[in-house]
Amino acid sequence: MSEVKGRFAPTPSGNMHVGNSFCYLLAWLSAKQQGGRIVLRMEDADLPRMRKSAVLQTLSDLEWLGLEWDEGPGPQQDGGLYYQSCRTEIYDRFFASLREKGTVYPCFCSRKDILLAAAPHAEDCTPVYPGTCWNLSSEKAVQRMKTQKPAWRLHLEPETITIHDRLFGRLSWDVQAECGDFPIRRTDGIYCYQFTTALDDVLMHISEVVRSNDLLASTPWQIYIQHLFGYQEPDYIHIPMLLDESGQRMAKRSVSLSICEIRKHYTPKEVLGRLAFLANLQSDWSPCTLEQLLSVFSWDRLPKQNIVIPKALFAKCQRETSQ
Ligand code: GLU
Fold first, then answer.
1. Do residues 57 and 16 lie in contact, with contact meaning Cβ atoms separated by under 8 Å?
2. Which pLDDT tens digit goes with each residue over 269-296?
3. pTM here?
4. Burial state string for 52-87 with b = 16 or more CB within 10 A and e = fewer than 16
5. Closest-lying ligand 1 atom to the alpha carbon of residue 7
6. If we measure between CA atoms, which residue out of 227, 200, 95 comes closest to residue 152?
7. What pLDDT, on a 0 to 100 scale, did the predictor assign at position 212?
8. Distant-in-sequence, close-in-space partners of 99: CB < 8 Å, separation ≥ 6
9. According to the 3-state scheme, what is the secondary structure of the chain?
């Protein structure tokens, strides 16, 4: 059996919060318990939205928690390869091959156009793209490109994508009916998350993707891209989201439960103990080490539902938000 390789894939648009660290801890425990490795990849493809300070803070926070990575930014490695903002030439090559095959097409629709023309997707209200620009003749598309910069959308052929998620079990999507053609490049030329992440996961030989369950809807699109280029998809484990005491999801702008704020009041062992408690790996939130967690970690123990963080858990942190 080949080596297990997990990954941390932070988007450095803001500081890492407790929900991100929960995800990275589980990814790390799962890979390490199987004798595997961890890749750290900075998902900063949308460079104008990123903050240099968040990159440095994320690296520092991961180190502070003891969540070391085997490949990624660092003095001894070619760090640039692990920043999506430095991988544009790679994405360009894959994009060019899709253009040659004619599977990607210019799209001039605004979000509003799509919402008006499409029936909302039953589950999460994401509209399935109605195919408006796929049906444009190439002459018309060329004509419109003279005055309007298009986004680039990937056309889906019929395919059923099935995964066996470690927590959700078997899930299946009819991509044409349930997902629809999707953008892989924006009007400003920046490659979209679905495209960069799908490619990087296979190009970096990731075998296990641990991420929050709000990304579940992205999975069939990403696997579709991987199959299109002849790659086998990794295993997926979509974990419950951490919610604040009012049931809201953590946001990067929520400074109170950012790791850099938590660090002012708690030790790494205290934070690990609290995260382990939320993951049901221990019955109270007493401090613990990564070694202790490696001996008790099991996906079977993890709650399936999203997890509300009790207010008392990080009581020393002020609950104010920025902006
Ligand atoms: N970069 C994404 C985030 O920080 C995660 C993407 C993924 O795990 O696929 O939310």
1. yes
2. 999 999 999 999 999 999 999 999 999 9
3. 0.94
4. eebbebbbebbebbebebebbbeeeeeeebbbbbbb
5. 8
6. 95
7. 96
8. none
9. CCCCEEEECCCCCCCCEHHHHHHHHHHHHHHHHCCCEEEECECCCCHHHCCHHHHHHHHHHHHHHCCCCCECCCCCCCHHHHEHHHCHHHHHHHHHHHHHHCCEEEECCCHHHHHHHCCECCCCCCECCCCCCCCCCHHHHHHHHCCCCCEEEECCCCCEEEEEECCCEEEEEEHHHHHCCEEEECCCCCECHHHHHHHHHHHCCCCEEEEEHHHHHHHHHHHHHHHHCCCCCCEEEEECCEECCCCCECCCCCCCCEHHHHCCCCCHHHHHHHHHHHCCCCCCCCCCCHHHHHHHCCHHHCCCCCEECCHHHHCCCCCCCCC
For residue 12 and ligand 1, the question of a CB distance below 6 A is answered with no
Q: Whose CA is nearest to atom 8 of ligand 1?
A: 211
Q: Which two tokens stand for residue 62?
A: 């991961």
**For 211-247, how does the pLDDT look when each residue is reduced to its tens digit (9 = 90+)?**
999 999 999 999 999 999 999 999 999 999 999 888 8
**Nearest residue by C-alpha to atom 6 in ligand 1:** 9
Site to substitute for ligand 1 among 17, 20, 39, 43, most atoms within 8 A of C-beta: 43
Distance separating alpha carbons of residues 29 and 289, to the nearest angstrom: 12
Asked if residues 172 and 162 have their Cβ atoms less than 8 Å apart, the reply is yes
43 lines ligand 1 (CB under 6 A): yes
Alpha carbon 296 to its chain's center: 26
Q: Is 71 in the pocket of ligand 1 (CB under 6 A)?
A: no
Does 211 contact ligand 1 (Cβ within 6 A)? yes
Measured in Å, residue 264 CA sits from the centre of ligand 1 at 26
Q: What are phi and psi of 208, to 5 degrees?
A: -145, 115
20 alpha carbon – ligand 1 mean position (Å): 9
* Residue 197 in contact with ligand 1 by CB distance below 6 A: yes
